[in-house]
User: Fold these one by one.
Assistant:
Number 1:
Amino acid sequence: MLRFSRSFHSTRILGRGQNITEKIVQSYSVNVPDGKKVVSGDYVTIQPAHCMSHDNSWPVALKFMGLGATKIKNPRQIVNTLDHDVQNKTEKNLTKYKNIENFAKNHGVDFYPAGRGIGHQIMIEEGYAFPLNLTVASDSHSNTYGGIGSLGTPVVRTDAASIWATGQTWWQIPPVAKVNLKGELPQGVTGKDIIVALCGIFNKDEVLNHAIEFTGSSLDKIPVDYRLTIANMTTEWGALSGLFPVDNTLIKWYKDRLVKVRPNHPRINPITIQALEAKAKVLKPDTDAKYAKTLTIDLSTLTHYVSGPNSVKVSNTVAELSSQDIKINKAYLVSCTNSRLSDLESAAGVVCPTGNINEVHKIAPGVEFYVAAASSEVQNDAKLSGAWEKLMKAGCQILPPGCGPCIGLGTGLLEPGEVGISATNRNFKGRMGSKDALAYLASPAVVAASAIAGKIASPNEVLGTMDKTAVEQVPTLMAEVDEFVKQDETISNTEEGSADRVDILEGFPTEITGELVLCDADNINTDGIYPGKYTYQDNVPKETMAKVCMENYDPEFQTKVKAGDIIVSGYNFGTGSSREQAATAILSKGINLVVAGSFGNIFSRNSINNALLTLEIPNLINLLRETYKNEPVKELTKRTGWFLKWDVANTTVTVTEGSLDGYIVLEQRVGELGKNLQEIISKGGLEGWIKSKL
């Protein structure tokens, strides 16, 4: 997926500065030519500080062994945790858990058993994810690490197996968006309110597949726990990472942790904190760093927000929903999003506002309130602070530290017709139980208040600080997109020849050409590309995969498309599940390149991992749509008579009409397909590349 436009190439040649995301990636990239600055759009080979996998560690191990690997390249790089299905005591699950534990022991890998906590929380508590390092995990909420200034981003299982075997995998540096949090939060408004508001206001994919860097004059007043919640849910916002700066607030947080953490801890100790302070003074965004866009929200205009039902892109104030008298059946204070100590204490402050354990508000009749700490350490701290006892006294049902109902596992799932309110990160239809239930997301305080009131309610209603029938006066929300830097600009005459020439590996094609076939739709999902009914059928032959390719999108695709064509489609192509067959089915059809306005990130990773090339060119899909907008009958799949030539060496794409030598309708710079990516593609994908390294 090549987002890198001509304007970015030119600024790099002129020595433009780097943002903090690019600087961190630079320090964890390998085989970068001396003197070259990596920037947005570049494909790089990364060697992350750490890679975490959880219950999926055994599938990763099977893939690792299937590659012929016998030894973990760097055992200190790998972390295995058990957290997702910890309530499942079946023989099958316990056997899987034992397999993971034995594998970790045999390979000298750090292992954390079920009950220790959620993997992401462990990565932070134990200092694997650490400020200014690059830490990945085979889980979509790796973004959480950005709350402590660690560049966290998810990888897929094949990537994890690659890191286990070689210490490395690939990454494309995404466009970087700056999110400016200006103003100060009103009393009682939290990090969850910030991210729920952001997801609801900027809900047009403004940050899709971007890295985010948070800035703002009052950032030092945002607690670290709030930052972790915000970074965690940048995943739901559509971003690949959400990075907060390393500032005095964070440094103090780490110094305070030294009271609990042993002075000789290998990752969090006085020496590492001192080194961090020195590094943070140097590793800052350059004054001329480039950002794709800047979004601004005024925190002083926020109040308590609730997302849903069944969508993170819909948010309303709790006052608006309270006035609708929405009864609830279940409430949840669980997950990697909002079950840290401050979250538990916030909820405890609602159920027991006086602090007197004998004056606790009880959970409303007919409501079940489930609580699970993010880790055993958090649970112990909550017991010491008294928050745990208050929640239990109120009637909360305690679950073990882990994921559970957030992902539809274990006790307390939503039943058909029920309404739930949760401090988790996702309220997708059916995720937390029945698809016929309604799920809302909110802060711990709002969740606790709703559990007591028996309906979606503000903490103020329960605490008696406002009339229960009144509607809170909410200030006008101030949010805006300040700036866009276009990601796709055509080539001007004055720019000709100004970009770097890419070295091409021997045998790799210098040009890729084909006729464009338009699949004119946005959000074509992986089920549309490769039907789900075939996904779990093993050993489906390529011929069959080719025949069913895109059949759920358009049955006529088969008769209109031939080998050697190039698919061009709309925005967020390949969204949905992570099935790699979405990429391999297209390859089976004889198509080696897909062009789109944008791609779902998981599809992009699976494409490269299986040697399917992708180009992201919004200008092209917009131009085609303008050309065909007045056609009386829209074809889902249309042969355009336009031809594309990708000059890989010179990083240019030319689109012509009628033939490859026809009238030029578009010329544009695209990103570099560097030697590292060429090598993976030439080996038939990441698995072939890993085998060659072994």
Note: The chain has three domains: 47-172, 305-463, 493-693.
Number 2:
Amino acid sequence: MHAPSPPRSSASADFRDPAWRGRLTFLVLAAALTWPMLVASEFRPWQLFDPQALAAVSGFLASFVPPATAPDFLLLVAEAAWITVATATAGLALAMLAAIPLTLVGTARLSQSAVGRPMGRVPSAIRQLVRWLLIFLRSVPELVWALLFVRVVGLGPTAGVLAIALTYCGMLGKVYAEVLESADPAPTHAILRNGGSRLQAFLYGALPQSAPELVSYTVFRWECAVRSSVIMGFVGGGGLGQQMEMSMKMLAGGEVFTMLAVFVLLVAMADVVSRALRGRLDGPALALPGTAARLAWPAGFAGLAIASFVTLDLRWRDFLSPDALAKMREFVAGFFPPDVSPGFLARIGQGALETLAMSAIGTLIACALGLALALAASLPAGRDAPGLLRAATRFLLNLLRSIPELVWAALWVIAAGLGPFPGTLALAAHTTGVIGRLFADTLENLPPAPARALRDNGVAPLAVFLYATLPQALPQMVSYALYRWENNIRAAAVLGVVGAGGLGQMLHFHLSLFQMEQAATVVIAMLAIVAAVDALSYALRGRLGR
């Protein structure tokens, strides 16, 4: 007679995933979609291990040593670094001034319709117009805005400030709205049901619980603005970008290395500032809108912004002059009518497929690597090993995102040749640093009670992550991942400068030849792709928030 089999433990039954069929179906569909993307992006990692590729990369990296340390050059780099930082700060300040009111208007969580009250056609239409305006602003690459403003006001930081302001207004408005809508709706709903206004619901309901994420993301966008300011230098915006372009043309690798080291220091400084601000803002002080903790970081940023506006040579009068407006109209008129010939549209379709594949595969790789690094970067400090691992991981994330996508692409083009594959690798490398930083901040901002309760009951660390940490963090992580995918579509336009494939390479080619009608068609294709990804992001956030 066989002994009866032991009963199944209640613990194993409790932690069986009830939605495993749906998750398995999702993974199968994702794999089915990923394969054609890999083919379209020409993803062939074995090319990187070819002896010729390894020799080319080693020769390129060897030119960086020794770094340039001449006093005159360091003084020039310091001055260029300030112009870069000031351009980024001034542009971000203008973007925030425009994005905050647009966020208040466009966020559904703050409207009366969120509590079941009818919403008029006019407010609904205004909210939709705001969403489309934000999509348009962030869909047009900074290079296109910069080329427009360089034509109007000439070379210098004015064009860079205006280009960053317009593009980053769209970015900030989108993410600010998603952060507010990902927060617990109970406080805002209570205020709205009791007759509170949209502004009161924001100040006393949504802002207190969302402030750490908003501050962290704003400081992160300042990092990105610094990198965008560098890119503006390649089209005449001054600063480190202009100096780097000159050094790269002269094959002065030591000078390039010194300027990249400055980037790393700037990003590390921003990371320290972000963590300090989140520590100050996380806690009971959030409930007091007038406390010094709430005013410290805005005052510091305002001081930096004022210094930036004062020291930069900004030619506002030239921008607002009748002659400048006439040049702007002439520049914009050159884009119309867009080229819609069948042959060119077929090329646009191929470029759009390459851009989608580059951005999607690059973002997927970055999400996988970034999540692993974020888990290490968000480990609680205390023991020596976790503390060292945390510091090393943070440094790696800073390093990855400090190097602009354009420099990553130049490196990968040397290793793998022209085409979408080096663009995919460049987006993956840079986005890993970005996603890892954002995911780590999200994990650190989570309430610790659910995870602590499971750990106190002897649940394994993996189960704690799957059933306590991940469900809380997933909506924000998905929002960040989809946003970075959208951002990478636009970033691919910058990579076209070095021949990294996709719509970006087409845009750079036609702009270089002043073929504005063809460039207009490329920009419209980018707008359509970004709008589609935005709609997908909005739908997924709605499903995850239920």
Note: The chain has two domains: 29-62+334-546, 72-331.
Number 3:
Amino acid sequence: MADALCGIWVDRAGQVHLAHRATADGVCVESEVALQPFAWLDAEPAAELLDGVPLQKLTGDGAFMWLARPPSLDAYDALIKRLRGAVAVDGVRPLESQHLLETRQRLFADVSFAELRRCQLDIETASSGNGFSDATLPDDRVLAIGLRFGDRDRTLVLAEPTDAAEKAMLAELNAVLAEEDPDTIEGHNIFKFDFDFLRLRAKRLKVPCAWGRFGQRANFRRSRLKVAERWIDFPRCDLPGRTVVDTFLLVQLYDITTRELTAFGLKDVAVHFGITSVDGSDRTYIAGNKIQDAYASDRATFLAYLADDLRETKGIADRLLPTYFEQVRTFPITLQEATLRGTTGKIDLLFQEHYYHAGRSTPAPPEVKPFEGGYTRSFQEGVFKHVLHFDVASLYPSLLLHIGRNPKNDALGVFIPLLKQLREYRLRYKQLARSAESAEERAEADARQASFKILINSFYGYLGFSGARFGDGELAAEVTQRGRDLLQALIEELSRQGATILEADTDGIYLSTPEYFDRPEELLAKAAAILPAGIELEYDGRYESMFCYKAKNYALYDGERITLKGSALRSRGIEPYLKRLSDSLISHLLGVGGESPSDLVVRFRDEIPALKTPVQELAKTEILSQNPDTYEKFIATGGKPRRASAEVALQMTPRPSMGDRISYYILPRQKGQTSDWQRARALDAYDPMMAAYDPKYYLKKLDDWVKRYEPFLDATKLTGPEEQGSLF
């Protein structure tokens, strides 16, 4: 192994602490260098504002044509403060990225993913209250800290329920992390639960959170992450020289494009990825309110449950982390920033690096006007057999290379050569993923090609983003227009070959063709013949059946598993009993079988009025889109609309945060109540005697579900007992 950079941290004095893995046994060697800070300015400041800071005029006519080079971090901070309001400043944050950019270094450049020193962490806690652990309560202790290093578990277990024993266990955690020296610490919801809980217990017991490298403690701060259209608030934890990986956040980022997950909990995701079987026969389960009892009376089961949590966490990280690991070998960025930062900011760093070392001025982000998106259309409704999926390989990047024009403000001409280089890397590793000798080499190559695929596809999105320094809305609009034209030409050709087009979305086409189902390559070759040079059509899979519901909403069955696409079929906010109905209906439509949707409807119509359906099957779960305190102020000033989940959050102690999941049910209507939010109660507050759910409300939702799927249901089996045969 070469001298590989595996950790970096910049202290407040401006010293860059580096951890290099330079020995065969993987031990890190630490070193220090001084940070060489810099910042771009859009005008030459007055001499008194510069206060002796060296200033370099850059070539080109970009908006930021001056480069300031303060001699120290203190001088850098002082300069930024003096320039506030006088000139625009464009800097690089965090400072670790600034050092990597300035020195053209990359983390883990000579380390394979298999050589990454990884740790999975999961804790189990006691509860003295209503079933939820509260780290601020004296007796809600940490019962165990599960740690996995590779295939070794080092589980720390509370010796006895005392402050002294818990304090010793927290101190032992510090010692184990220092001894094992992991590059990453991975956990599912580790920011909001595990590390935050450990922080509060450590504070109570006066134990330092010495979890970082270079003898440093953890740093905590409030942060937020944008996931598609919503924000998630979380207490971020930064460990100098190490990376905290929260797989709970990674699965939500993953689902932005796949739209396959119906829940983000550890056990749900583990089943989705095949880490744990659907029936759960290969893992130990303990109900949340029974964990403390298992610790006390069934230690073997308790430890097996914790070990399975670690195994599932590792399995999820094995699947999702390699993409980000490969990104840090491409961008001047830390691994933790890679997992929490948008793609636009990463691509900007590459451009800034090229312009910085070329001594060239950089542009300000241009305004990008709205433009028409990709081609999307649903052609059919119903169930179809013998389905093939074709897509155009990296459609937009390929079109960009075909056009061959850099963004208007890319004076250095970086965009197209960089895109071409990344595409060549991707093709090289894609080939290695098929031909490498060992399974480990093939997996490594596949992770790299997948990462580069994401990167090159992001170049198009970067062009159309108003915050991108080198954005170009006109070029992005031209690319989408050509993409629409190309996809329509493919649809016409495939139809001419006898295929029934089912669904088209941006760069892919689903079609039904009994003739070519067992020889898709023949149909692929005929359709690909109409494409321009450099644009490739790929066969991306076949399916026994497909349920087309409406545009961008469909279900696929490949003979082993069902995949749902679109929010109409897989809304995470839907009540469990309705989700169960939808899953049953889709399973039957696709020919998979399972429980009958007709029988389910009849059963729910019998059980709900008798309050026999468990409230957990009826309760709705939503993710808070606003902090409760902010919502409360919004309502106090007359803000509307009022939302059931937000109202329930106001009832809870402690109050949850934006991004948390809230489960609630609806009480029977009282006089004067006109809206659902007035009747919403937290699921944990359910009382079948004093505060039961409203049967009429849930029966009405059941009837609405039946009507929505009327074209696909057998009406004679789904009618109510009073009006047999007349529901529709």
Note: Confidence is low (pLDDT under 50) at residues 715-728.
Number 4:
Amino acid sequence: MNDMQLRLLGPPEVLVGDQPAHFRTRKALALLMYLAVEGQASRDVLADLLWEQRQEGRAALRNTLSHLRSALGSASPLLHSGANIVALDLHSVHSDVQELGRAEASQVLALWRGPFLGGLTVQGAPAWEEWVTAQATLRREQYDALLARHIREGVMGGEAQAALPLAHRRVQLNPLNEDAYALLVRTQLAAGLLDEARSTYAACRAVLQQELGVLPTFAAPPGVQVSFPEPPPVVGRPVRPGAPPLVGRAREWERLQDAWTAGKLVFLSGEAGSGKTRLAHDFLAGQGAYLCMEGRPTDAAVPFAVARRFLRQGLAGRSLSELPDAVRRELSRLDPTLSPTPLPPLRDAAERLRLFDLYVEFMGRVFPPHVMFLIEDLHFWDRDSHELGAYGAAYGPDRQVFVRSLSTYRPDELPPVLLESILPVVALGRAEIIDLAPLGVGDVHALLHHLDPRAPAALAQRLHRFTGGNPLFVLETARLLQEQGALTQAEGGELPRSRRVQEIIGRRLLRLPNLPRDVVRVAALAGPEFSLDLARRVLGVTDLEAAQAFEHLEQAGIFRGERLAHDLWAAVTADLMPCPTAGSCMAACWTR
């Protein structure tokens, strides 16, 4: 029996021994690629993956497996198929995907030939396309992390010249990723290539201005003059005509009003789709003009990234002479262009405290009293900017400096260290966290009634169970039902799933740590038979490990009790990321 070598990063290639394998159908190749990633799956999962009708797919799967065995030739014993499970022996399969976390620096460039399974499309198989899309995002992120690790190791190890090709490749694959440009500039400077670093910075500035309307937030190379962007527009977004009302949020609105009247900072906490952004915009629109700032996924990796952006926003259209020399010089730690002799990065706690104090003074000088900010996606902020913001919130009012802000964040994505910065400000009585809980059945019925007064209460109960009361999921599903003319039917077949909802849940699933993600997979497959003891036995983990994973999922709102929070979690998980231990899980369920 020969080993197999698979290449999935780019157009798929299969070698049995040292000979290429040839496939009669795309679905046979797609089936092999899927098993090479997932390991094994039930026949129902594979039928749903590659065919639109399960019954048709179950029958066609037998022929496809036969074609696949013929294509594999001497390696066909690696493919195992039983009455319910199809599996691939991954111990004898070598793939480029397996190398994503461990490839040496010398292997990295050759590893990536293009997007995951580039060019392998399957007609009439939407579930396949969704799986490939999710996997492509995951593999690109893994490759980006691999590149970044080897680049940093090269720079720190005095091998900056050797790391340059990797840094250039990272920018090529991430043309809008500011962190990729920042790391390339750092590598070029470490290699003594000042002119090249300036050119890279200019290219980054041009791309970000043209595509995103922003400037780079990382420090410019020596000798580069930076002009500040125009101030962000003052916005106030009225409720869209005909938009469904904010049902089920009367209590949160009242708490928000009370906290705002008391002069507190407000943090709206809730999962994706809970209505944080809509609630925040609608509330601030009634208070007057406000500025909107968004956290970016790249902020977390760049120290003081958000603080630097606030700094440039505050200086937009102003002369530097308006700032005292001491303030301008101290802030040159964040932006070296502010002083002809910029200060070096922070070295100790005393320097950090001085920077924080003068940054608070800067905010008081450049922003009008009680200016209102809407800060979206606080969970993306870098740690240093967050600590600086918490310091300003705690001690700014004592110096007559108080920037009013309403922030939104997802609790399952907010790093614990950032939450620890917020809690002392809450304890001082200067901030309040308002959690947006899921809607109740009555709230779901009220939303349906807005769309169609004939919508029955029984449909609201089904929809609540299906979505867990997530406002966005409810609304997306209800609109699909409305398009199908089914909004007045109490009973019916399976409720529809919108692509947007599937993408949101898919992204949350991909961001989970490995063990909690596997617990979700087991729960999705086991259904009513699921228990923590079942997950522990199927995954082969200890009681403590299973309990910690479950606690993580409960805090993230994915589990309620010992059940998934809603049916959508089970449905989307089964579609996008089938359980890699399906056979073990089924066997465990049957032997209970």
Note: The radius of gyration is 27 Å.
